[in-house]
Amino acid sequence: xxxxxxxxxxxxxxxxxxxxxxxxxxxxxxxxxxxxxxxxxxxxxxxxxxxxxxxxxxxxxxxxxxxxxxxxxxxxxxxxxxxxxxxxxxxxxxxxxxxxxxxxxxxxxxxxxxxxxxxxxxxxxxxxxxxxxxxxxxxxxxxxxxxxxxxxxxxxxxxxxxxxxxxxxxxxxxxxxxxxxxxxxxxxxxxxxxxxxxxxx
Length: 201
Hints:
Blueprint: H1 6-18, H2 25-38, E1 45-49, H3 55-62, E2 69-74, H4 77-86, E3 91-94, E4 107-113, H5 122-132, E5 133-143, H6 147-157, H7 169-178, E6 181-188, E7 192-198
């Protein structure tokens, strides 16, 4: 009998979901709000962590924002394949952002959207974000539901976890400060948005 690690099982799960994963008009509209909160402008660069099938490129397209560079990361090769079908110009890498990640050039923005509940090693997220950003660049963790809304959603679908779906604000703040970020802002009214800026040297 073959046993899989939790990460391998997660990859298989998302690979299986990819073919039927639909970026609906509603999901793209919510992603547009996050892109607007992020503040990205045409010509700037974005690292889209745990990109799925491409709701962020869909939002960028709707908003007529053309990044200078867009790189999508995901642990699921099937999700990235679906993203490339819709956005063949997109640059993609099948990697786990909970492992050390080195990119050859810095980004203006690093975004983790709608996927923070799936990450365990929060410290590595901040380490990788700091490494990936230009000085003065923005790291954002966002979700289309508020903290309470996500808890209620998980209760409705019968999903249970030993940890908070969205990490406690204080834990995120402490990690941000520890890893060289400032200008921390948190919104938790219409959607959840944690944002911080890599300290300029």
